Amino acid sequence: MHWPWQRRARQLAASQRLANAVVQEPAATEGHEARMSVPRVVCIWPDVLALDPTQRYAWCRCGLSANGLWCDGSHRAVESSPGPLIFSPKRAQHYWLCTCKQTRTPPYCDASHHRLRPPSR
Fold first, then answer.
1. Are 86 and 58 in contact (CB under 8 A)?
2. Cα–chain center distance at 2
3. Which of 69, 72, 82, 110 could pair with 61 in a Cys bridge, judged by C-beta atoms 3.0 to 4.6 Å apart?
């Protein structure tokens, strides 16, 4: 969980990850290790990023990526895991990108994180 006063640090970290966001061929992985039924929740707060409409981005749908928002090919290690969502924004502006992977309008946040409940013990 991130607190409001940590927003600037999150924005800096997100802008650093944005450099890795431009679509490149992910590294290949060997075999399938497990089955995936629902995406892993990485964070419950969306990231606000300025995206360039001339670039294509690979948004991670499985939540296994070490890059957080952006696909690094980790889904290949899990059987029946969804691949990345390749997208280009319509115009240059700031976008709220979903990190909980529960959105109904991927890759954009639709406040689905408000419906998430903490795991029971």
1. yes
2. 16
3. 82
Report the pLDDT averaged over residues 14-18: 62
What are the pLDDT digits (tens) for 43-65? 878 899 999 999 999 999 888 88
Distance of CA 20 to the CA centre of its chain: 12
d(C-alpha 44, C-alpha 49), whole Å: 16
Q: Which tens digits make up the pLDDT trace of 75-116?
A: 888 887 888 999 999 999 999 999 888 899 999 999 988 887
- How far apart are the C-alpha atoms of 82 and 38, rounded to whole Å? 10
- Return all residues near 18 (Cβ < 8 A) that are at least 6 apart: 49, 51
